Amino acid sequence: MPATSLNAVGLSLNDCIKCNICTSYCPVSQVTDSFPGPKYAAPQSERFRDFGHPFYADDAGPISRTLAAGRMPDASVDFCSGCRVCNEVCPTGVRIAEINARARARIAAARGLSLRNRLLGRNELLARVGSIAPGLANFLLHNPLSRRLADALFGVAEKAPLPRWHNETLNRWLSRTRAQRLRSQQKVVYFHGCATQYYEPFVGIAAILVLEHLGYEVIVPPQNCCGLPMLSNGEFSAAEGYHRRNVARLIEFVNAGYPIIGTSTSCTLTLKEEAPELLDLENDADVRALKLATWDIFEWLRDRLDQGRLPSDLRPLHQSDRPFILPYHAPCQLRAHRIGKPALDLLARIPGLDLRESHARCCGIAGTYGYKTEKYQIAMDVGAELFDYVAAQSAASDREAAGSLSFTACDSETCRWQLEHGTGIPSRHPIELLAAACGLYDLQARRPADAN
Amino acid sequence: MAGVLDLLVIGAGLTGLFAAYTAARAGLRVRVVARGAGSTHWHAGTIDLLGYLPNGQDAVANWAQALPELPPAHPYRLLGVDAIAQALDQFQRLVAAAGLPYVRAGGGMAFTASSPPEDRNLQENDPAEQFDDPRLGQNGALISPVGAARPVYLAPAAQQAGNLEDDRPLLIAGLDGMPDFYPALIAENLQRQGRLARSASLPLDQLTERRDRSPLHLARLLDRPAAQALLTEMVVNAAAPGERVGLPAVLGLNDHARLLEKIDRALAARDPDTAQTPDRRGACAAVFEIPTLPPSLPGLRLDTALRARLDRLGVRVEIGMEVCGFHATGRRIHWIETETGSRPLRHTARNYLLATGGILGGGIHGDRCGHVKETVFDLPLTAPQTRAQWLRPLFLDKRGHPVFRAGVSVDHRFLPLDRSGAPVYDNLWAAGAVLAHTDPIRERSREGIAISTGCAAANAVVRGQQL
Ligand code: SF4
Ligand code: SF4
Ligand code: SF4
């Protein structure tokens, strides 16, 4: 049984000043009565779960105990989506979402995990199996009957926006195009994550094309799921295994001084912070080195931009002279990096692009949250703020009888699926837009520009 | 990234947001970073200028006249009445343009901004009106969450009818089962002050099944027309003719003005004879909000209005960013760094404004050993450096506690000073509760200090940029 110690996460509850700002902003607590809100679920309750007791904070240093020990968290904490909006607004730095994640882990350790949550946590395994025969897998997963069965038997929401397997994984594309890949003295490592590998290889392709365009050789070493789905479902020991394997595979590149760049904001956040912190691995030297070497792709590009090392050959995204309106949603997974909104800084350089920043708190899906039958409606209600915002942008553009809304943009894959599900408008990763503006990528067909 | 920022504001409370607004309106490129949402969220939403003098027992009747009695180093003394009035004037224009009008407490006014949105820019640039007003500086008295008289200068329309200079009888109506609001206690305290007041409790279960009712949940609920109709009916049934009704400040997040208006009209329609006669300013309402424990809706509405205005000026407000370091050579700050999930993030600007707040806001930290520190730049502080001197024995001591007066000393341009009285940096400014020689909690001067010093520091930055 895994142990966790009282570290910065648990101790941070002592800084709570009971201002209730987190409760004011929690998007889940706003739409459902099942969740009392961050202040009640985290700093207030954790104090009574032994771990957070101020008594433990003093002299003797961190106390380790098995997850199941201590008092059992209230089941309502399962309704926290982990979106971290609360962390962002808390004026005193309480690690509310992490306290909740640990509470869920304690419940999972004591009571076991449902088959559904176990499955959702292993989306990489599912994805790999499906990619053997993508057509068949898509049929099996997406036909109405199996969706209804999955809902009834496992509690996977019938209407939730499940992804489709792509007919070619990123790895297969890489080996097929090996001869065309750039070799260079300047190298970066690309972390694709499961969704890019199996469902959206074109996002990885766009990233690789842009990085090569800038003169970097892109190394794509073997890697596995970052483990986040398990972390958010409270399966800490399995998540630790995943993370340690990734560290073992990436550490030689980290030690060689190469940046580890990702397009999936949740994967990069897990490598940077979630896994080290939740799993108490912060003192492991390799884990720490990987944490410090990991970048969101736009965070890294913005850093080049600040150093004046980005070419400025961007062209408009379309030929007509109508403005191209693009609503952009910074996903909470990205905001949790606390790096601002670097994609906005880069996309703002595309000529003729009318970029509109959404201030919606969350799209609702929160990783695997919105896929659960009992949470599907909550996720849609949470997302309404964002869907309404997008709708308002297209209404405005109609009035001007000028540009129309052909895409939205968002850095996180599950959010894009949810955005498409909620708005009916296709959504793109900002790197796809940047690749298209470099003339490397077909935004509509989602493939390299020169492909036939 | 079109060029470097002219001003990076650290802190997203009233001070930081209003300073950012002032500088951005003057044409500067501005950004705000903050560790969390501003402390606007837990304040009453009124603009208190000066309620009590240090060591004074009685409430200040007119802050403009009381200014000379403040210690010479007090931020208000650095500014003078005119600069403060000018800043308040700017503030009033801003919030009026955002549809959340503020006037002097007891001034009376309609619940909604009367001007259509197209006129709002115009309004924001109108010439000042406040200066020739003979009542400049006159505090009003509103009802505190426990029923005490609270000296207030500017108040939002929603709180105006709670003015205690008005002698209409009061009905304090709570919501049965809403924690954190105590109508009976408020009414009892008002009676002790010799006012005609009683309390009532409206059944909340008709509105919601929910048990943990935070003010915000109730407010969102009351944005819905059906809930508004229900509450209106309950209030009309509870109120006696001629009474004005005080309700907890939960009457809506986006739509509170409409609900207040509905209730007001329903009360007037029921008792046409005793219906309130409009005063010279327009309306004299029969219903008002009393601030609650946090989260405070009036504060939240103010924050929303300011943020919306900044958004339109192209000012990004990034919260969730905690400063963890900075780099300076000589008297110049080159960049600051904020903490991230991985390596620190660098922010570069020509000027930096420290608006991180005092001990409560997190701009000043006191540790267990009695050290008091300014949290971002470790600036010199005026503070009692032994823990024994921090606090007086009585929690509610009228003189306040010495540690809350701890802060950064500044010159008349709002540049922080070192012990010798010279500016610590040439491009660092400070404003708001982080300043020394004021105890905003005890003085009831929080928002006045925030607005006037935020505005002054931003103006000083603007002047420096123009040189
Ligand atoms: S992580 Fe999101 S859902 Fe969970 S408590 Fe925080 S704000 Fe609410
Ligand atoms: S926002 Fe932070 S300090 Fe305020 S109640 Fe929530 S956890 Fe506590
Ligand atoms: S799926 Fe997206 S916006 Fe939504 S919860 Fe994730 S990160 Fe937040």
Overview of this protein structure:
The complex is a heterodimer of chains A (452) and B (467). With 452 residues, chain A is α/β, with parallel strands linked by helices. Among the domains of chain A are: 103 residues, Orthogonal Bundle (Fumarate Reductase Iron-sulfur Protein, Chain B, domain 2); 125 residues, Rossmann fold. In chain A, 50% of the residues lie in helices and 9% in strands. About 3% of the residues of chain A have low confidence. Chain B has 12 helices and 17 strands. In chain B, strands 1, 2, 11, 12, 13, 14 and 17 form a 7-stranded mixed beta sheet that branches. By secondary structure, chain B is of the alpha/beta class. In chain B, helix 1 runs parallel beside helix 10 and helix 1 runs parallel beside helix 12. Chain B folds into 2 domains: 164 residues, FAD/NAD(P)-binding domain (3-Layer(bba) Sandwich), CATH 3.50.50; 234 residues, no CATH class. In chain B, 52% of the residues are buried. Chains A and B meet through helix 2, helix 6 and helix 17 of A and helix 7 and strand 11 of B. The structure holds iron/sulfur cluster (3 copies). One iron/sulfur cluster binds next to helix 3, helix 6 and helix 7 of chain A.
Would you summarize the structure shown here?
The complex is a heterodimer of chains A (452) and B (467). Chain A has 452 residues and is an alpha/beta fold.
Strand percentage of chain A: 5-15%
CATH class of the domain at 324-448 in chain A: Alpha Beta
The major β-sheet of chain B equals: 7 strands, mixed
Query: Structural class given helices, strands, pairing of chain B?
Result: alpha/beta
Structural class of chain A: alpha/beta
Can you give the mean pLDDT of chain A? Answer: 85
| CATH topology-level fold name of the domain at 324-448 in chain A | Rossmann fold
Count of DSSP-assigned helices of chain A: 24
Average residue-wise pLDDT of chain B: 88
State the end-to-end CA separation of chain A.
53 Å
- Going by CATH, the architecture of the domain at 324-448 in chain A would be 3-Layer(aba) Sandwich
> What bound compounds does this protein have?
iron/sulfur cluster
How are the strands of the largest sheet of chain A arranged?
A: 4-3-5-6
